């Protein structure tokens, strides 16, 4: 249960940070979506985060990804466990619509599903 609580807190923090990034970029809530896949072990967890948006600032995909990652890492500087656990993928709505390897499918779920999920008893 303690691990689930830590994961939920990490997801809430990541969600707040991405909301901050969205405000900085002038995104409305309909301009981006967050999906996650959490993997847990007895000792740690990893958070695979997919940030989908209409567009990202930057010249190319690497610069776009790097800007998002740097923003997240800067805001997570006081949360080393969360920072180490985070794995980031970014893509645009158009890339998602292409399907194939960019399709959003299980085990990815909207982050809100895990944040609002009732705790296990």
Description:
This protein has a single domain (2-115), classed as Beta Polymerase, domain 2, CATH 3.30.460. 46% of the residues lie in helices and 22% in strands. It contains five helices and four strands. The protein has a four-stranded mixed beta sheet. A hairpin with a 4-residue loop joins strand 1 (32-40) and strand 2.
Name a few traits of the molecule:
121 residues; alpha+beta; Beta Polymerase, domain 2; four-stranded mixed sheet; 5 helices; 4 strands; 46% helix
Instruction: Give the count of structural domains.
Output: 1
Amino- and carboxy-terminal Cα gap: 8 Å
Q: Please mark out the parts with pLDDT under 50 across 5 or more consecutive residues, or reply none.
A: none
CATH uppermost class:
Alpha Beta
Coarse morphology: globular
Radius of gyration: 14 Å
Instruction: Write down how many β-strands occur, each being a DSSP E stretch of 2 or more residues.
Output: 4
Order of helices and strands: HEEHHEHEH
In spatial order, strands of the major sheet run 3-2-1-4
Whole-number average pLDDT?
A: 93
CATH topology: Beta Polymerase, domain 2
Largest sheet: number of strands, sense, barrel closure: 4 strands, mixed
Helix content: 40-55%
CATH second-level architecture? 2-Layer Sandwich
Counting H and I runs of at least 4 residues, what is the number of helices? 5
Content-based structural category:
alpha+beta
In terms of DSSP E residues, the strand content is 15-25%
């Amino acid at each position: 249960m303690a691990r689930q609580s830590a994961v939920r807190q990490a997801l809430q923090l990541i969600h707040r940070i991405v909301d901050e990034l969205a405000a900085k970029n002038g995104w409305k809530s309909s301009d981006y979506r967050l999906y996650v896949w959490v993997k847990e072990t007895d000792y740690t967890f990893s958070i695979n985060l997919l940030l989908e948006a209409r567009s990202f600032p930057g010249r190319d995909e690497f610069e776009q990804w790097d800007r998002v990652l740097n923003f997240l890492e800067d805001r997570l500087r006081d949360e080393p466990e969360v920072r180490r656990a985070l794995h980031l993928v970014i893509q645009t709505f158009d890339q998602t619509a292409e399907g194939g390897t960019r399709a959003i499918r299980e085990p990815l779920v909207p982050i809100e599903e895990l944040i609002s999920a009732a705790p296990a008893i």
